[in-house]
Amino acid sequence: MNDVAPIVNFRVNGKEVSVGACTRGHLADYLRHDRRQTGTHLGCEHGVCGACNVMVDGQVVRGCLTQVAQLQDAEVQTIEGLTAEGRLHALQEAFVARNALQCGFCTSGMLLTAVELLDQNPEPSRAEIRDAISGNLCRCTGYHAIVDAIEDVARGRAPEAPKAEGIGAPLPRAAARRPATGTGRYLDDITPAHCAHVAFLRSPHAHARILSIDTAEALAMPGVLACFTGEDLARVSPPWVTSLAGVKGHSSPPQPCLALGETCWQGEAVVAVVAESRAEAEDAAELVMVEFEELPAVTDTEAALSDVATVHAAQATNLILDQVFTVGDAEAAFAGAAVIAEQDFAFTRQTGMSLEPRGIIAEFDPARGEIRVHLSHQAPFQQREIYAQQLGLDPGAVQVIVPDVGGAFGLKLHAYADDMAVVAVATLMDRPVKWVADRLESFTADAHAREASGHARIAVDADGRILGFEVDLLAGFGAYSMYPRGSVGEALQACSMVGGPYAFAAFKGRLRGVLQNKAPTGAYRGVGQPIATAITEQLMDLAADALGISPEEIRRRNYIAEPGDTTSPLGLRFEPLSLQECQDRLEGLAGLAAKRADHRRLRAEGIHRGLGLAAFVEMTGVGSRLYGPLGVAVAAQESARVTLEARGRVKIETSVTDQGQGTLSALAQIAAAELGVSVGQISLGTTDTARNPYGGGAWASRGVALGGEAVLRASRGLKASILAIAGALTQRPAEALRIVGEDVTDASGSPLIALDRVLRLARYNPTEIPLSVVPSLSVEESFLPGALPYLMSNGVVAVEVELDPDTGLVDVLGAWVVDDCGRVVNPLLVDEQLRGGLVQGIGAALYEECVYSADGQLETGTLADYLVPMAAEMPDIAIAHVSTPSRATLLGAKGVGEAGLVAGPAALRCAINDALRPLGAQVTHQPYSPARILAAQGIV
Amino acid sequence: MKAPRTEIARPATLAEALALLATEDARILAGGQSLGAALNLRLDAPALLVDINGIPGLDRITLEDGHLVFGPLVRHRAVLESPLVAREVPVLAQVMPHVAHPAIRNRGTTAGSIAYADPAGEMPAVAHLMGAELVLATASGERVVSARDFFLGIYDTLRAPEEMLVAIRWPRARANEHFAFGEVTRRRGDFASAGFVARAVIEAGVVRGIALTAFASEPAPVLCPAAEGAIGQRLTPLLAADLAGAIAADLDPMPSLAGSAEQKRAQARALARRVLMDLAA
Fold first, then answer.
1. Mapping DSSP to helix (H, G, I), strand (E, B) and coil, where does residue A47 land?
2. Residue from B20, B55, B98, B101 to probe the interface with A (highest A Cβ count within 10 Å)
3. Inter-chain contact B10–A72, Cβ cutoff 8 Å?
4. Which tens digit of pLDDT belongs to each residue from A690-727?
5. Do A66 and B32 touch (CB under 8 A)?
6. 0.95 exceeded by the pTM?
7. How many angstroms separate the CA of residue A459 from the nearest CA in chain B?
8. In DSSP terms, which residues pair with B198 in a beta bridge?
9. Residues sharing a CB contact under 8 Å with residue A156, sequence separation 6 or more, in sequence order
C-alpha cells in the first residue's frame, strides 16, 4: 500500500492540474469544489441523469462516475471550456435562440453530449439526436426545443431573430445565456466562508418508536462539529401544526424538525450531523446509533380507513378529510340517463423530481439576531414568515435569498422539516450551515403527489348531453398534512374540477383522505387537475362509445359556450372560454379524422393505435380566496417595483420568482413594451426578500398573469412620471410625448430629452423642473384580480399512441396542443411551458411511480427505478394558440404553466384505452405500465 | 451521497494489479460505471480500489488463434467502432447500441460488464450465447472458463475476488450464421424486463443449428434448449410462435420492479417469437 496518495496530472480546459488521487472526489466534485467551476452539476450522483457530463479526451463521460485517479494525462473539457474567449459555441447560441433550456440545470451536460454527437455525426436525423441525448435528463423542456436547437446547428440554419420586441414577440431570453455557459448560480454553487455541512440520519422504518439515540461515536469522527436530535432542535424551533380553518375534520399532528420520539415515514430525518464536509458528515451519520422499536405501518389508503393502526401513535384517526359535495339532483340525473358510463381509477404516487435537489444555506448573526437563508424555493416571502415565526424573530430579521433554481414544479413550495432543521441548526452554530438533498433523500423526503383511487360515473342523455357526474375518491396524504398549505388541495381539486370544461347540472362527490406512513404529499404541477381531467375525459370517451358518437362529437355537444362570465355547478368561475375553437383548430392541426380512419385500417393488420383527446380548463393566477379564508399565511398578490436608473436603464424588482419558466424575461418584455424602451435596457433584480416588494412567488401559474399585470401597471405609472417631468422640462403636454429607447421624443419620434437627463435632474437638481411635486421615478404596484378568484385558461390536447399488446409497451407517436392562455406575451416561453408540461404528463401516464412495499419501504429511490421521460421516447409536439384575453387585467394574459400536465395524463389514458378497446380491455391505474396493460388484457 | 473514504492504487503492470487484488479487500476500477454508482450510493465500501487504467496494453482488440480477444480495458465504444468486431463477431456490434447511453459506453468496459454480471446486462448475454472463453488471472496463474458456465446468479459469477478477468476470447462467427437480439425496455438504455440474443446457421432457409440465450428476466443468462426445435425446419411464424411458447414456459423469471414473473414470461414469449423471426429474416 502506498502511504502517500499517488499524484495525478491532467488538464482542465487546457490548464495543467496536479492532484492527489482520492476516490472521495469524483471528477464532478473535484471541478465544483476544488476548482470552483460550478457549471458541472450533480443531479443524481449515480450515473443516470447526465447533468454532470464532461468531456474527457474528446469523449463525454459522467463526471460523477469518473474518478480523478483515472485521469492521468487526460484532457478534461467542461462547459466553462466551451465558450472560447467569450464567444458562445454555435450550440450554446442555438440553445438560447430556441429556448432549449428552462432552469438550465441539465444544460451543461446536454450541450457537451450534443457537441460529441455532432463531432461524430455531423448530420444526424431527429431520431438520432433524440437517441444521442437519451442519457441526459431534462425535466423542463420536453426535449423538442433541444432537438430543434441541435438540428439547427447540424443543418447550419439559424432561427430567424424576431423583428420586434413587443408583447407577443418570440424573444429569446437573455437570462438563458448564463446557464448555457455554465455560469448559472444554483444553491449548491454557493458556499460561504467557514461553511459547515449537514447530513441527516433518516429513519429506515416507516413507523417506529425511538428508544434511544447515541451520537458519541459519530461525534468522535474526523471533521465532526455537532450532532442534533429532535429534542435539541425543538428547543429553538418547536413543532408546528398545519391548520386549515374551515376544512372540516382536517387535523395534522405537530411536526418537528427532527423526529421526536416517534418516526412516521421512512426517510424522516432523525439526527442532524454537522461536519466540515458533507462526506465527513455522512461518514459520521453512519455511526449514529438509534434504537428503534418498529410499529405497524399504515400505507394502503383503504386499510388506513379502518384505524386498526394509526400513522401517529397519539392520533385517534387517519381520516383527515371527509366531505360530500352535492349539486343538483344527481340521483334523478342518473335515473333518467340514456347512458351511464363508469370506470374505476387509481393514480399512483409521483413526485416532481426537479433535477436540482432541494437545498438550503443558513447563516445566523447572534449579535444582531438576524438570519440569512439561501433557499432553492418558489415562495421566499412565505418562508421568511415561517422562519421568523419558528425562531421567534422579527420578520425583518429574516432574509431569504433564492438563487437560480434548477426546476421546482410545486415541490419547492413547501416548508420542509429538514429545511427547518437546518435553520434551527444555524442558530446553534457559530458558522453558516448548508444542506443539499442527495437524490435518495429527494425521493424519500420531497413532497409526493397524486395518490388517489376510486370510482366515477357519468350520466348522459340520448343526445349525448351530460346530465351529471358522480365521483368517489380516496386520497393518501402521507405522514403529515404538508406545511403550511396542507396536503388536501390535490384531493379537493381532483373532485371540484371534474367536468370542468363542460356544462352539466348535477354532481355528487364523496371525498376522503387519509394520513399514511409514507412521505407527505404536496403540490406538484397541476394539483388535482390532472386527476379531474383524466377522470372526466375518460368518462366522456366511454359515454361517446356507448352512444356510438365520436369523442370529438361528444365534447363539442357539451362545452361551456357562454359568451359572458359563468359559474359552473361546482362553483368554478369562468371568463369566456374558447374550447370549441380550440378543438376545431386541433382537429385540423392533428388531422384527427384521417388518423381515426388510418387506425381502423391498421387494426386489420394487427397494428394497435389509439387517439386520445383531452379538453381542459386550467386554474391559473389563483388569488387570495384559496388560502386566505383557511387562515394560511400565503400572499396571493404579486408586486413589482419599476425604477428608472442611470443611462436610461430600467430596473424591475418583483415578488415573482422564476424557476426557469422565463417569467422574469416576460416581465421585462412587458415593461419594455409599456414604457417604450428596448428589452436590453431592462435589468432584473435577484430574488431576495430584503429587496423585493411582497408577494406570492411562483405557484398556480401566476408569474405573468398577475406579476405581469403588476409590472404593466407600475411601468405605466413610471412612464407617466417620466413624461410629466419631460413635459414640464420641454414645455409640452405630456400626452404629446413618448419614450423611444433611451429618449423621450415628440409624437414624430424626434428626441427631446434623454431618459438619463430626466433622471439626473429629478435626482440631483429637481428645482430645475417646473413642477410643484416631482413624481417618483420608482413606482410600485401590487395586483390581485378583484372580481375573479383565478383566471381560467383552457385548451385541448391530442396524443396518438401505438400499443404493443404483447409486451404492454406504449409508443407515443405524436402530440398536439391548442391552448388559450389569453394574451401570449412570448410564444417561445409559452410553447415550452406547454411542451414541458405535456412531457411530464406523458411521464405520469407511462412511467412515474413512487412504489412502496406493504411495510412502507420506498422501492424507487434512484433515477434507475423512478422512471422519468427521456428524449428517445418523447414525440415532437405541435402547438397552436387561440387567444381570448382576460378581461380582469389590462394585460389580458392568463397562466399556462400547468396546462400540459393537466391534460397530458388524460389524453394518454384516452389514447391507450382507445387502442385497447377493440381488444376488449381498458386500463384504469396510472401509470399505464406494461404490467397493467398486460393484466387488462388478461395476459397475466 | 458521497462515496466512503477508500484507498486507491494505480499499478503500472498487470502483475502489480493482481498482487494487490490478492492481498486486499479490493475492487478493480476499470470503467467504473457500475462501481462508481455503488460507491456514491454507499452500497459498497471496499478497502482498496485497484485502478487498472494506467496499465498499458489492456485496451487491445486482437485476433489470436481464431479468436477475437478483448483486453480488460476495451471500452464499449471501442467495440462499437471496431471494424474487426463488426466482421468477426457481428452480434457484438449489433447489440452494443442497446447498452446504456453514449457517455456510459465511452467509459464502461466490456470485461467489466461481464464480470459485474448484472442480470439485465447485454454483454453477459452475448458472451454466454457465443460461449466466449473468459481468462481469469491471479498472481499465481490463469484459468479459462466458458461464459456458458461463468454466470451463477445476480451479480454472482465463478470469478473469485482475487481474480481478474484479463481477457475475453470470442469465437468468430461462422459463415451463414445469423444473429438476432431483442429486449423489452420502457425507455432506451433501461434495464430490460426480458431479453434474448440468438444465433443460427441457416442454409437454404432451413435451420441447421441454433442457440438462444435468455437474459434480464432470469438471474443469469440461460440457454433455451426449446429453440433447438427449429433445427431441420424453416422458421415460419407458426413455428416461431410454438417455439416461443415452449421457450417462455421453460424460463424461471424473477420478479422485480420491472415486473412480476408472469409479466416477464409473457413479454419473453412475445419477444422470443420476434427474435426467432428476425433470425430468419
1. coil
2. B101
3. yes
4. 999 999 999 999 999 999 999 999 999 999 999 999 99
5. yes
6. yes
7. 36
8. B180, B212
9. none
